[in-house]
Amino acid sequence: MELSVARKKKITDASFHVLLNNRRVTDGHQYTQPSPSTYPYQWLWDSCFHAIALSHFSPEDAKKELRSAVSQQFENGMLPHMIYWEPGTLVDIQWGREGKKRTSTITQPPLIAEAVWRIFEKDGDAAFLAEMYPALSSFYEYLLTARDPRGNHLAGIINPDESGEDNSPRFDDVLGLPPVQTLQENFKSRLKLVEELRNGHFDAPFMKQYFWVKDVPFNAILVENLVVLGRIAGHLSKHEDALKFTEASRRVADAMRERMFDGDLFWPTYSESYFKVKLKTWAIFAPLYAGILSEDEAAKLVEEHLLNPSEFLSNFMLPTVAMNERTFDPQGFWRGPVWFASNWFVYRGLLRYDYQNIADRLLENSMELLEKSGFREYYHPDTGAGLGAHDFTWGALVVDMIGRNSRG
Ligand code: GLC
Question: Three-class SS of residue 261?
Fold first, then answer.
């Protein structure tokens, strides 16, 4: 894919501009607000995206972003998905932790090992790996234990927000919501879960009776990031840990295959009987990112679903929900529009399996979205119109997509 120097420069400059404009420093903690008008706090997986994008411009700023993301780690190792550094405009959820710095009491997808590693790849600063290692190892340990109390090798999430896809139809059944619903109905049921978590004194397994989903992207991200964490441990000569995390990764990958794989696709599961939610969202492609499909399985997935015009082959790729699903809504929050997070994960997966041409198309579409509609939270998969928050940072992931494309 030939990208003109001028085109790349324009997108790169605009990405840096949005990251810089959204940067804030509170009490010496530097972080990036995903969108100052809509999301004026720090979020965990957003910070990982920011750090990955920033590693291309300024590894030092990427490090600061992650340092502040781990600065409010819980004693049990959990990294909160939100840190309310300053009073903001967003609806102020009473997560139940009062204190000097207020945080949420749930987490988000575990991409932080990769974010740390990507910075190290840029500047080779092993001291940064050593500095981050205690926070990383206790976070992943937490996921492997508190989120897997029965030792089944899959991490459970206790609220849809932990998936990063708050309103995804993958969670409708578990929440007891109809396929067509209002934002308010959905929000209300997630707030109810926050209340139950407070009632249960923030003990994750207590939530099993209300919401406990083994989700596909969360566990796929865990598989890949445990491998990266093992690599980090190896670099720090912590050989036992390196082995431990690498083996844990393999066990999660095996469990995903055993419990989630059915009819050629991986599905989220819930309940003790591992009931599968067979609803097609972009999550069916997340295993590509973690390399847990065979070449043949990947080929079938790409040909039958990604390149299927009634499912995921939209004018602007990639809709977050298959277009022929009943729940598909091209403007609904996580219920159809294109988001840069899912595009980035799928792009990584396509390159991993050598689908260069399709990865090129995904990159081309991602660039077109920025050129046509600017840095928005999500986009209409048919028209490319920008939707949701303005000055939203995730478009900056395109800089990383360009950087990883050998033909870029
Ligand atoms: C929304 C998204 C979530 C993100 C947050 C901040 O809640 O669903 O993934 O982390 O906004 O951007």
Answer: strand
Which residues have a Cβ under 8 Å from the Cβ of 279 and sit 6 or more positions away?
Answer: 169, 170, 172, 321, 325, 327
Q: Ligand 1, closest atom to CA 394? A: 12
- Rounded CA-CA distance 105/372 in Å is 37
pTM, two decimals, is 0.97
Substitution site in 35, 37, 39 for ligand 1 pocket (most atoms within 8 Å of beta carbon): 39
Quickly name the fold that domain 5-404 has: Glycosyltransferase (1.50.10)
Identity of the amino acid at 163: S
Query: Is the confidence at residue 181, as pLDDT, over 70?
Result: yes
What is the per-residue pLDDT across 214-243, written as a single tens digit (0 to 9) for each?
999 999 999 999 999 999 999 999 999 999
Give, for 196, the enclosing helix (H) or strand (E): helix 183-199
- In the chain, where are the structural domains located? 5-404
Torsion (CA) 225, 104, 156, 271 in degrees, nearest 10: -160
Instruction: Evaluate: CB of 46 within 6 angstroms of ligand 1.
Output: yes
